[in-house]
Amino acid sequence: MRTHVSSVGLLIHGDPALSFSYxxxxxxxxxxALPSQPGVYLFRDEAGVAIYVGKSVNVRSxxxxxxxxxxxxxxxxxxxxxxxERCGGELGALLRESQLIKQLQPVFNQKLRRLREMCSWRLDxxxxxxxxxxxxxxxxxxxxxxxxxSRASAQQALRELADAHxxxxxxxxxxxxxxxxxxxxxxxxxxxxACVGExxxxxxxxxxxxxxxxxxxxxxxxxxxxxxxxxxxxxxxQLVDRWCYLGPQAAGRKRAPPRAVxxxxxDVYQILAKPLLRGDLxxxxxxxxxxxxxxxxxxxxxxxxxxxxxxxxxxxRSFR
Length: 320
Hints:
- By secondary structure, the chain is an alpha+beta fold.
- Helix content is 27%, strand content 20%.
- It is built from ten helices and 13 strands.
- A hairpin with a 2-residue loop joins strand 10 and strand 11.
């Protein structure tokens, strides 16, 4: 008899696939209907309330792995059925999972919930200033660096950056700085000396260089774009605007939906920023509200070129 180690480190004798049986209290038909394609799935309780939302490139396999995990027994005991939505690919599943968790707030999802206050460091020549999404349009603002869920986490990240690069915490505003006296880090040999005579411009340049990897890219288009994915015969166009996921394009609809207020979403940014700006995605430019049906990339002024600060997008087309 073979011995296996489970995903939580438990020793299991025999083949777990052979010994597995569906929990009797979970509607069997809902489990039998699960597809082996990309999508999202929802564990629902007796009242039909979503208590957990997940995503996978193989929904059926992922859900069955939940059913075999002993440390998820509390969630499984409350589950009565499992629903699913197919997606055109992994990216669409990631975006839809994030959207559903924010909308439904399932009790067993701890990550991807909407942040109470999102903030970033804005660098405009001098010391970075902490700005909040409630006061600043993160999708359109230049000079933002880092995305945080609280003032404390932003300050901690900047402090760690200062330690790593020999920056002055006093000049950065992270601690009180008495005139003519070195900061605490300088006394420990960790500060380059901005508090005791290093040129302001030189320190500001070092701050800018240290923050550069944290740069938050503004939305590079004048309006929404559609991200095209296809899997096993299902083609979807996921609508995104201003780093905000708007949902899949409605079947049969030939234009973008009326423009709603799209608010910057940190999770959408983290999912899309690298592949979008590298040009790894297949996009369609939506001719509403841009008013451009000629194809090509569209800049903020309605012209025919993409912002030069960003990588060109592969296989971009006009969507009609």
